[in-house]
Amino acid sequence: MRGVYLAGLLALAGQAHAQGAPAADTAAGQQVYETRCSFCHGEGGVGGQGPSLVGVAGRKAAIVPNFAYTAALKASGLTWTSADLDRFLTNPDALVPGTAMPMSVPDAKERADLIAYLASLH
């Protein structure tokens, strides 16, 4: 199982590199997560405003049980690849018009770091 996880993590990192994204730093990504994401998505987040991001990399969008997703995200058909996470975090409403996600991560390096960190959560 660990081999499958590592292969998936390497594939995500390879996709980011192939797309010309900055080299990712998982520790820096954890800082981005704690600063920008954990308020809504972390354990004990504000009123469950965001679903857990544990296991988000490679997961189909809008499938975490007991979370009220928007119709737009449910209908998106997305699977959270590194490319789709990058596009979503750049401008959530541009990728999924009608999403309830209010935050973006406009800096490419911060997005790459965050995506690397998210890929490490399982």
CATH class: Mainly Alpha
CATH architectural name: Orthogonal Bundle
Q: How do the helices and strands follow one another from N- to C-terminus?
A: HHHHHH
**Distance between the amino and carboxyl termini:** 12 Å
Helix segment count?
6
CATH domain topology: Cytochrome Bc1 Complex, Chain D, domain 2
Overall shape: it is globular
Proportion in β-strands: under 5%
* Helical residue percent band: 40-55%
What does the average pLDDT come to?
A: 85
Q: Total number of β-strand segments?
A: 0
CATH homologous superfamily classification? Cytochrome c-like domain
Number of domains: 1
Strand count, sense and barrel status of the largest sheet are: none
**Uncertain segments of ≥5 residues (pLDDT<50)?**
2-10
Rg over C-alpha atoms, rounded to the nearest angstrom: 14 Å
* Class per helix and strand makeup: mainly alpha
How would you sum up this structure, described in words?
The protein is an all-alpha fold. The chain has a single domain (2-120), classed as Cytochrome Bc1 Complex, Chain D, domain 2. The chain has helices at residues 2-18, 26-41, 71-75, 82-90, 92-95, 108-120. It starts with a helix and ends with a helix. The model is unreliable at 2-10 (pLDDT under 50).
Task: Supply the key terms.
122 residues; mainly alpha; Cytochrome Bc1 Complex, Chain D, domain 2; 6 helices; 0% strand; globular
Helix-strand layout with pairing:
Layout: H1 2-18, H2 26-41, H3 71-75, H4 82-90, H5 92-95, H6 108-120
Helix pairs in contact: 1-6, 2-6, 4-6
Task: Give a brief description.
The protein is mainly α. It has helices spanning 2-18, 26-41, 71-75, 82-90, 92-95, 108-120. It is globular and about 35 Å long.
